[in-house]
Amino acid sequence: MSNRMRSRVMTQFPVILLTLISIIQALALELLWGKIVDGDYLWQWDLQAIVAWGSISVTMLGILQVWVLYSTLVLGFTWRPTMRDMLLPFLIGLLEFVLVSLIGPDFSALWLYTLAGIFLFGNTVAHITFRRARREIENAAFFRGRSPATWRDFIWAFSNIFLLIIFGILYTALRSPDWIALTAMVFANVTLLLQMVTSRRLWKAIVDTED
User: Is residue 101 within 8 Å of residue 30, measured between CB atoms?
Assistant: First the structure.
């Protein structure tokens, strides 16, 4: 009976999780679209508008990256879900909603801190999921020959989070100069694009794995 229930949970959980993530991402995109439609300041084409468009671009890429992350984990691996797996999507949804709500004509350092929180969340979810997936025999082919992650593997992620926080501190300490906000937008967009490339490589590695 125990094995039957475990099998049932592990079979139905991916469908539930992807459905939940899809709903949350759709709501975030709807809120983002509303910001664009109602944002008259976006069409003034001054430095503040460019920063705002940069925020929109980062937010869009972030929403896509969260979807790619969860889709890759659910379709590529099998793991024993916990209650935490059911609750974490609501946290990422809350962070995304806050990120969208902070987009406006006046840039806020809080937006950078929220983005840093999303980066931290995504890397934490991925790491925890990979650790549990490694224990399942169904994923043995993928993890064969791949050593468990160490702190060195997270230098890139922690560096990005640290820099976003530094940008936020500098923006506040230097009394909100537009050039720091613009630099932060360029950095965040490039970082997320590179993250998409990394996700593409992971997906290719999963698809090319031979049993």
Answer: no
Digit-coded pLDDT (tens) for 196-207:
999 999 999 998
Distance CA 203, CA 5 (A): 29
Q: Which residues of 106-116 are buried (b: 16+ CB within 10 A; e: fewer)?
A: ebbbebbbbbb
Residues 64-114 have pLDDT tens digits of 999 999 999 998 898 888 888 888 999 999 999 999 999 999 999 999 999
Round to whole Å and give the CA distance between 101 and 39.
Answer: 12
The pair of three-digit structure tokens given for residue 44, joined into one six-digit string: 């003034």
Output the pTM of the full model: 0.92
* Ordered DSSP codes for 178-206: HHHHHHHHHHHHHHHHHHHHHHHHHHHHH
What is the distance between the alpha carbons of residues 117 and 127, in angstroms, rounded to a whole number? 15
Q: Is 154 exposed, middle or buried (0-12, 13-18, 19+ CB in 10 A)?
A: middle
Of the CA atoms within 13 Å of residue 62, those in its CB half-sphere come to 33
> What does DSSP assign to residue 145?
T
